[in-house]
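Here comes my example:
=====
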Amino acid sequence: MKSVPKLIRRFLGIMLLSTVLLLILNFILLVVVTASRAPNGYPWITAGETSQALRQTESGSYELPDAIASELEESHAWAILIDNETMQVVWQTDNLPQTVPLSYSISDIANLTRGYIDGYPTFTGEAENGLVVLGYPKDSFWKHMWPSWDYDLIANLPKTVLSVFVINIVFIFIIYCFANFGLLKSVKPIVSGIQRLPTKEAVTVRERGLLSELAASINKTSEILQSQSRQLQKKENARANWIAGVSHDIRTPLSIVMGYAGQLENDKRLPEEDRQKATVIVKQSKRMRNLINDLNLASKLEYNMQPVRMEKQNVIAIVRQIVVDFINMDIEDKYPINWETDEAQSVCFAEVDKDLLKRAVTNLIQNSINHNEGGCHIYIRIMTEEERCAIIVSDDGTGATDEQIECLNSSPHYMVCDENTSEQRHGLGLLIVKQIMEAHHGWLTIDHSQYGGFQAVLYLPVIRNY
């Protein structure tokens, strides 16, 4: 159950990463918001600029430059100048509210410096002969009237922030674990059930918890798969039994047909035309017999009914004997076989079933013969590549198209049939070769040969320590 801890680690990693990213995002937003609000300190700056720009004329009155006056007007701010000696307002802007007093005491000045006048937030600046006071609309600013902090709080602020950060992470982690404990508890049996589904085992997951519906679906899927497996097994058994039964029932009448046809073929008293017909019957009967044998062997290999007796064998010796047998049978020298294996390589050991390997190589050579009625050269080569042995059977015959090669390499079977009833063909030979290779933990590849014809390569794992 490696997937469950991995899933838990993924959840925890996502949670921790989300927490850290959230805190970083909050910090960035705090900095951005604070930076964007920093210009709100401009009322104090404006008050200082106003107090510096305010000048007394020769007539004793005061005047403010147009730029400063326009800035105050745009901000809907008003201004007054309180004389240092009389504590009276000696100058004011035209938009001064009527509720703003024109006479102040020292305590009034202290209050307005840190707070408000009649609800108007006020900001001060030192002028030449007095104090300039700027007032803004009541809903424009909020002033902190008691800006004093404990010294230890400021000195220990980094530790405090770090402690709060750690406490937040721990708190979020506890909430996450508590909230997902039931989910994680429900995930484990479901993951286990899903992993067991491909093994064709009966799966039963307890239907409870947050994922009870998913558990019910897994149980239902398991029931369907078990039912399909049983039905498929019945069909496969019926097919295998049918093939075995038909093969057995056909052999006896087929032997009789072949026997009588052989007698007619050799009967000198019959006309030549009738004897040729008997020859065709014998030939087609042999094809039927081979087809029946191939069907039986293919069926046994598919259902693991064919015993595979694996022994340490010299692959080169086996293939060489097969080549010798075919050369001896080719009396007309219509299908000469060229042995291209390096003579310096005399042994190549592998764990194989000798009879099945001989059948596979024989099928490949016979395949070249069957598809080249006009004759062809057949080339046999054995090569050792790293941890495998390659048996290469190729010819210079008619070969196959790219589409046919692709079909042969990708199709689950090689059944071929044409419209010529006298030359019906089947692809069980290549299918049997493929099945034999799979039984030996090897494989078959089909391609164009370097001689312009057809090529098949058998790959077998070899024994190195011999």
